[in-house]
């Protein structure tokens, strides 16, 4: 249910009134899950020859470097076909119904992975094809969403904080106020935004009040968070979007709830000429109150080229390939080599945005969006619908 | 003509209509039934995908009931009312700007008609989305709109047009849909028999009275058709307001809620129920339109 910048970009490319809304419905009508062919329930055997392709990947639009894909095609002499989706929900619906067949799911939301495994959509990985798994940050080798990383490898990771214009609001002031910065930003009316995602926005309100059990289903806590977020409409004329990565560098937005990776990519790509990265600032809560999220890659159970799919995952875990990919997508890979010192030294990240790279402590103590179950999702979605409808 | 020949001819004509009927069934009736099956169906508890109920006996109306509760006296009701307001105001804007244009092209422009028509079609060359994106640039704080208004001293300081105010959304809707409004209206105005207008003037009516009592009533069917063509897509619009306000909750329309529930939530039944409700509403408007055009036609024939 996570939305993202990639989703926004992809969505921008689509146009349709109710026709657009009808597409997922029709996709959903393909039948119950499990309508596809043979499914791999055990890891593939060791030492198999790679298939001749094509390798079919599903991913958000513009979320992997074309050069990285071209390198893989050259190295293994195969064609890679990428199908794109806009939301995690949409990808699951298409894969479950068999409307979309693929070998690799490039960007799974971590809170869906448990269901994908249980629903039999993913196959367990054979680590013998993944020597580059050794490059993965230790914090992600046994992730909370997939014990022992049996079914997935991490792709990119990022934390949720506040991105702001350091030339308009003093970073010390933001640090002193924390999440209250957003509620206190009455001087920046109309220039404040929150992430277009119900979990992110309501969690922010919980953390502001000191609630760290962000996966709670306690109605009182959720209702209070919803009321606080609704308050932002009148207080600061809040916007709900995922455009902070360009709106902050361009100066349209002054203060935004933001994914750390968005500011890195914004500093590289969206600062107007003559404006340096020193106008940007990022704040995040201390470890233990900081939500750190990641996307993950997996091989689908009905993959026709499972060996090739494993090799692709391994390709993306290569330090050099990953660096190349990072320089294009702006989202940090979960590899040990590309730590803050490295990416700052290599000039990918300006020094004043060092805190956009979550530290090992941040990751280890990071808060996670765990699955809430159908009832929990329904509560959050109804509240989100109420907020976006104007409160 | 014998009865057999007549019957054969009817069959031939029915044959001609067949592809159209097949098309309608395949791309209209079936999808609507699919929407109903989703709205009254359930969801997969694990993957949260829609489990449509194809058999009407299995239909579960819980989602629809919840939606109705929220529409009548709840938060969604306000979104419906807001959508109505926006569409109504945008339609008024289309009439105010579009009618004189269509009238001029159809009745007054002689040599320039071809050029003007080409200009009217021109916006269709550019995708709707591109035109909206262009507006977001024009309306920015340091954009051309503010610069021009300040240059003419209409504004003292730049106005934040993209701030989530309703006028920007209404202006966007008018701008986006006005070509759809002008063209059908033009073709209806152009067909008005010039002799009727001349007769009005010959009988001593002023230009205005002739327009009011002859041209305007005769153009009502065209006006209705143009209005229907524009407001139907406006009711389902969800990108104009998103683009022109960067996603402000103050201007959310019903199309945004449908999009959220169908694409970003685990409750496609709620989204599908909203689709059905909106369709029902538009259906009522359509019925009204058809009855009004028939009445107008009868009056014109009298």
UniProtKB/TrEMBL annotation, chain A:
Region annotated Disordered, chain positions: 30-49
Subcellular compartments: Periplasm
A Pfam family the protein falls into: SBP_bac_8
Keyword Transferase: no
Biological process terms in GO annotation: polyamine transport
UniProt xrefs under InterPro entries: SBP, Sperm_putr-bd, TAT_signal
Keywords: Periplasm, Signal, Transport
Cellular component terms per the entry's GO annotation: periplasmic space
Keyword Ribonucleoprotein included in the entry's annotation: no
GO molecular function: polyamine binding
Major place of residence: periplasm
UniProt-recorded name of the protein: Unannotated protein
From TrEMBL, chain B:
Keyword Transport: yes
Keyword presence, NAD: no
Transmembrane region(s): 12-40, 84-103, 115-134, 169-189, 210-235, 271-290
GO CC annotation terms, alphabetical: plasma membrane
Membrane topology, as annotated: Multi-pass membrane protein
Entry-linked InterPro entries: MetI-like, MetI-like_sf
CDD domains from the UniProt entry: TM_PBP2
Biological processes per GO annotation: transmembrane transport
Localisation per UniProt entry: Cell membrane
ABC transmembrane type-1 domain boundaries: 80-291
Signal sequence extent: none
Keywords: Cell membrane, Membrane, Transmembrane, Transmembrane helix, Transport
PANTHER family, per database record: INNER MEMBRANE ABC TRANSPORTER PERMEASE PROTEIN YDCU-RELATED, INNER MEMBRANE ABC TRANSPORTER PERMEASE PROTEIN YDCU-RELATED-RELATED
Record family assignment: Belongs to the binding-protein-dependent transport system permease family. CysTW subfamily.
Protein name: Unannotated protein
Provenance organism: freshwater metagenome
